[in-house]
Amino acid sequence: xxxxxxxxxxxxxxxxxxxxxxxxxxxxxxxxxxxxxxxxxxxxxxxxxxxxxxxxxxxxxxxxxxxxxxxxxxxxxxxxxxxxxxxxxxxxxxxxxxxxxxxxxxxxxxxxxxxxxxxxxxxxxxxxxxxxxxxxxxxxxxxxxxxxxxxxxxxxxxxxxxxxxxxxxxxxxxxxxxxxxxxxxxxxxxxxxxxxxxxxxxxxxxxxxxxxxxxxxxxxxxxxxxxxxxxxxxxxxxxxxxxxxxxxxxxxxxxxxxxxxxxxxxxxxxxxxxxxxxxxxxxxxxxxxxxxxxxxxxxxxxxxxxxxxxxxxxxxxxxxxxxxxxxxxxxxxxxxxxxxxxxxxxxxxxxxxxxxxxxxxxxxxxxxxxxxxxxxxxxxxxxxxxxxxxxxxxxxxxxxxxxxxxxxxxxxxxxxxxxxxxxxxxxxxxxxxxxxxxxxxxxxxxxxxxxxxxxxxxxxxxxxxxxxxxxxxxxxxxxxxxxxxxxxxxxxxxxxxxxxxxxxxxxxxxxxxxxxxxxxxxxxxxxxxxxxxxxxxxxxxxxxxxxxxxxxxxxxxxxxxxxxxxxxxxxxxxxxxxxxxxxxxxxxxxxxxxxxxxxxxxxxxxxxxxxxxxxxxxxxxxxxxxxxxxxxxxxx
Length: 636
Hints:
There is one protein chain. This protein is mainly β. 13% of the residues lie in helices and 34% in strands. The chain has a twelve-stranded mixed sheet with strand order 1-7-4-5-16-15-14-10-11-12-8-9, with helices on one face. It has an eight-stranded mixed sheet with strand order 18-27-21-24-28-37-31-34, with no helix packed on it. A four-stranded antiparallel sheet has the order 20-25-22-23, with no helix packed on it. The longest helix has 17 residues, at 137-153. It is elongated and about 95 Å long.
């Protein structure tokens, strides 16, 4: 690889001769303070011009990356106003292709969006990601030209998104700025700054063009030539035009200029004192031997082996599994990473996962969790469901198993926990009072992977009549092998009745049909609490849909109000993690309030979980059918 380094002073410039006569980089004296660089070489060869402020430094910055269309090409460094600067060129390796990392963010309107969701959507050909920031004059100046490009290329399958990675910008301030500037695109809030760091964004507006099929970046950097106009978008326009014409864009990268993003530096965290304890707190609960996760975090080496995957899962908001929108509600069982934890974990991975020399905390593998929580003491009763045989393949229908409690007197429950003997094949359990296959409330106990519900809120309990039957609703997923499972239900009693009875309000819509291919079909249900009812104290919310469920919100309209309030929003619903969202502080809902459950279904081919995007879908018990139920747990 032929290289040359040149040094430029404000008063003069000099060039060193190139190693190869057919390839050279020359520098012309400054023209109005801007250095002109001339590259000569073989047409169709790719060159990258880079600069650094200190000779011998390693922080070379790409000024331009392009494919020669002639024997020579000129380039002006619009930022060449420093006292000293060094330049070089290099020829990128043919296989040097930048791939766009996946991410999931919530936009300024509360919509969850994932880049890789569209990876199989043949109607989408490319993405234009414009990194933005509130208060950036260049973003304001470029907006009309960017909107013209969206109108020019959007109908041809190019999606235009904005990403705000500016520290201290909030979703509400982003929405206000969008309204003020008339921006109609989705502006996704990168609240943890993780996407800005993953894409190495330094200025706004900076653009990233990503082709959908291979998810490679075919252009990044400046929107246009700053030497021509502050609002020029010629580079982006040219890259899109060439891409849409099935041509290889000849300009691959130009250094972005504009508002400096200034993402805060993050010191590399210490593995022993910061990273390992965080993994133990947030991840090892599932990623331990014999637990529900597919691999166990038992030492530094295995975490390092999985580091790239961990980074992907965190950026795409799949792990840790927690889907509540942080803008609405504070939940006591929030298992997501805090902003500080996420920043440190990703910084440690970017630094290469340094180990340090102290003892590895992860090697102290925790013992298997106790069958029942130690803090509850021994259960007052344990009820066994008959053993269940699960077939190796196929679709397992819902099972309704009726079991007599055998408890001879009325009791009040302070906790009720159901556990499988074989977690591999269990999709979920529900246990409710009575022998009834039509019960839709969540009942007295439930189990889904990762959900640790079971202890009722202080001062509340569930009444269990003497000698009553219980229904065990069991849903299994075949593992490829014939398997066995035996559910057990543990019950803990109050010595004296609690102050209030805990009940579950199921808000459900059974009258809907989801159209084939519909990507975001909304279904709603509303219920007005009668004015003569006592007030409701809500403790938790739980959305329930099946494989096509994509989002759900719980809203209320208080008496005399014209504005709905969002109590809990799950903008990305996952059938495999049916979480109960428990409020840190209970919420009082007054009589006369209308409660709304708003859900949406994705019956498109882009939904990886979709059993059949060509089918019309309605209410049914199987995972291939659908449900819309919003459970509210509270006292009345």
